[in-house]
Structures are given as C-alpha cells and as structure tokens.
Amino acid sequence: MLFPVERLRPLAFLRRLGIAFGLCLTPLAVVGFAIPWGARLGLNLRFLQVLLPVIAVLAYAFYVRRIEQRPLAEFSPAGAVRELGWGVLLGGALLTAVVAVLAALGHFEIVGGGSLAGAAKALSAAVAAAVIEEIVFRGIIYRLTEAAFGTAIAIGASAALFGAAHAFSPHPTLLALVAIAVEAGILLALAYVVTRRLWFAIGIHAAWNFTQGGIFGLAVSGTDAHGLLAGRTAGPEWLTGGAFGPEASVISVALCLVAAALLWSRAQRAGRLVPRALPVA
Predict the structure, then answer these.
(1) Which 8-state DSSP code applies to residue 275?
(2) CA atoms of 202 and 129, how far apart (whole Å)
(3) pLDDT of amino acid 1
(4) Residue 281 confidence class, pLDDT cut points 50, 70, 90
(5) pLDDT digits over 248-264, tens only?
(6) CA-to-CA distance for 247 and 256, rounded, in angstroms?
(7) Whole-number Å distance between alpha carbons of 46 and 24
(8) Cα angle value 143/34/203 (rounded, 5°)
(9) Phi-psi region of 243 (alpha: psi -120 to 50; beta: other; left: phi over 0)
(10) Closest C-alpha to 156, from 166, 146, 147
(11) 197 contacts 75 by C-beta, under 8 angstroms
C-alpha cells in the first residue's frame, strides 16, 4: 500500500533518500561507464543500453523490499494496462496538440519522410528514459519528499530537480529548464499522485517523447531525432522551443498546466493529497 502515505521525519527522509540513490543509481552508473570503457577495450557492450530500464526496475524493487520492507505497489499489475494506456493517450495527445498549434501559427512544417528504423530507435529511447526517470524522480524523489513534507512541497521540489537535471542535455537554456520543470515535473508528479503507481506517469512520459521524436522527428530535450516524419519548426525560441525541442515552448507549458490542474482537482476530490504537517506523535 502506498496510500495513506507513510510519514517520515527529516532525518529518516534523508537516510531513506541516500540509501535509495545508492542502491538504485549505482547499478545504472556501473553499466553506463562499462559501455564506453568496453569500447576502449574493443568490446561492443551497447546491448547493455537496452537492459538499463530493466536494471532500474530490479534495483528499485530490491530497495523497496529490503529497505522499506513492503510489496512493490508502484508497479502493481492491477490497473497497469489501463493506467499505462491512458498515459500513452494523454502524452501523445498533448504533444500532438502542441505541434498542431505551432502548425496553425505557421511555425511547424513537415519537410519529408522518415524511417521505421528511426522511429524504432526513438521508441526504445523514449521507453528507457520514461522508466528510469520516473523511478528516480517520482518513485524516489517525489514519493519520499511527500512522505516528509507533504504533496505541495514534494511537487515543487521534484519538479525543480527534474528541470535542473535537463541542464546536462544538449542546447539547454534557462527557458527550457523552467519549461521542463513546470510542464513535465508538475504533470508527472500529479500523474503519480492520482494513481499512487508509476504506470500512468511512465505512459505520459514515453508517449510524449516518442510522439515528439519518433513521429514528428523533432528534437527531444536537445537531442536530434529521426522518426516517421521529418518535421521542422521555425520562429521565436520561446514559442517553438528552438534547438531544445517543442517541450521548451510556452505552448507546451500552457497545455500541460491545464492537464496538471485537472489531475490536481481529481486528486483533491479523491483525498489523495498529503498535508504538510506531520501528525502529532
């Protein structure tokens, strides 16, 4: 059970956070370093990239069961297909709406066709990023922060860190980092809040990235993508997102904030919001 939320005192929160990062990120870092080091030795270890989301889930499951000593409810199969499906529909619809608005304003056009190979690569990258980042930012950072400080603070803190983490992406700008924090950080945190599982958030995240890169062929977090179509944006950076991609557009921010407000309202009606104050011992 993940709701009602187990409350944590500040020291317990810091201890849990440190252990979770150590157990969950270390295996990913080891594999991440092994790939380039293997290349220097003449070994092709790129196949390990496909295993990164699996490793992330296994490491998180180990942490949850050994440290928190509970079932892995975040990945419960109950409702998984439904929540993942709704997430895919919402993420794809939001990004498509962003592109549609840009096209209507004359700032997006299709300049050619793409390839199935490019789309397949984009799909693999989208799924891997969604699984790993949702475990780290929602499963660990958001969930533990909420247990210590309540829903509102946890949303703000996890969203800010999610935006800041994209500073390591190609072509980062202050506008892009703020946009990522506001649109994706808040929306994905609330996707977790309303379900208390990670399926919905993973679906939104993966579908957004795949639609952006794998279908429209637009840059995803500054990384060039080749999808089913070859799309191009032109116009002011604040409107199109520039080289970072349309996720840095104010249109994305506005649409995602509307979706986030609807999820907040739903979570509030369902009594899923956690107050800031800890109960008196």
Answers:
(1) P
(2) 9
(3) 56
(4) very low
(5) 999 999 999 999 999 99
(6) 10
(7) 20
(8) 35
(9) alpha
(10) 146
(11) yes
